[in-house]
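Students often ask why we bother encoding 3D structure as a string. The short answer is that it lets us treat folding as translation between two languages. Here is a chain of 75 residues written in the first language.
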Amino acid sequence: MTDRRLEQSRSFGAAAGAYQRGRPPYPAAAIDWLVPAGVRRILDLGAGTGKLTRLLADRGFEVLAVEPIAEMRAE
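And here it is in the second language, the structure alphabet:
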């Protein structure tokens, strides 16, 4: 990975708090549309600050959240 690409891949880490505060929540209807009937386990890949992860878990899904940026996970 080039230095520029590495820098870009880490750019969300510096703004994790602002992202958490500023990003609107996902509408509940989006989950109804996105998740097929009968699904119980979901992989949230690139989970960010966990906004979608929490919504899925609150709906009773078993969620595995994967987020490579430590600052985003910390939020």
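Translate back mentally: The two ends are 26 Å apart (CA to CA). Keep this in mind for the problem set.
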